[in-house]
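subagent[fold] <- orchestrator: predict structure for attached chain, return tokens only, no commentary.
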Amino acid sequence: MREQLEQRVAELEAELRAGQQMLAEVEARRADIQQTLLRITGAIQVLNELLAAGTAAGPAVDDAGPTPTAEPDQLVAQPL
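subagent[fold] -> orchestrator:
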């Protein structure tokens, strides 16, 4: 009986380690996806600002380029 219990404990510990490894992989993947979404959101914001400024149709009169309206640290990732 004791041997069976020890074997079961060993099996459960192995399952626990495997589950922890899977969870770590999923969390890493989630962080990667969140960073990708943040970059996409930033790109959309920049393009929308360019469209709103009218620079998408051609160069500005002074050719100085668009004036930045947001700092990168102002971009906030939306939760998944």
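orchestrator: received. Logging for downstream: The chain has one helix and no strands. The mean pLDDT is 84.
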